[in-house]
Design a protein that fits this description.
Largest sheet: 4 strands, antiparallel
Number of helices: 5
Strand content: 15-25%
Order of helices and strands: HHHHHEEEE
């Protein structure tokens, strides 16, 4: 075999490996993004709570979850319930909410789960529902 054919074979092998690597990286990113919306929704929700933005927090919740939260705190609406939920927290504890680690997001059909690290509210998990392609908080656990 001539040195030119050996070089061509090496170039073809390297190009093939590069294409395969690019494909695998793309596939990994695609698969990881299928769960990222769960984690992103959970982090956004906790961020809204950390800034005491009851309206934004409630917008990220299903109507049923909003009604349940309002009923739990015996107030007229969800934003008022968020205020009651956060009432016992110090400003530092509220800020801590935004940094709560969301762990092991997983989905099963139209229901998603995001486990939470320790946080000032004592929440252990957020249950989410896929509503028209958007993950929304359905339950606080």
């Amino acid at each position: 075999m001539s040195s030119t054919s050996t070089i061509r074979i090496r170039v073809a092998v390297i190009a093939g490996v590069a294409v395969l690597a690019a494909f695998l990286v793309g596939l990994f990113l695609l698969l990881s993004r299928s769960l990222n919306p769960l984690e992103e929704t959970a982090a956004d929700y906790l961020g809204h709570l950390s800034t005491a933005d009851g309206h934004a927090a409630c917008t990220a919740m299903t109507r049923t979850a909003q009604a349940e939260l309002a009923a739990t705190y015996r107030v007229a609406d969800c934003p008022a319930a968020v205020g009651k939920l956060l009432e016992p927290l110090t400003p530092a504890q509220q800020n801590e909410l935004a940094g709560t680690d969301t762990r092991f997001p997983k989905a099963s059909g139209l229901t998603g789960y995001v486990d939470l690290d320790s946080n000032p509210l004592g929440l252990s998990r957020l249950v989410l529902k896929d509503v028209d392609g958007t993950w929304i908080i359905a339950e606080l656990q």
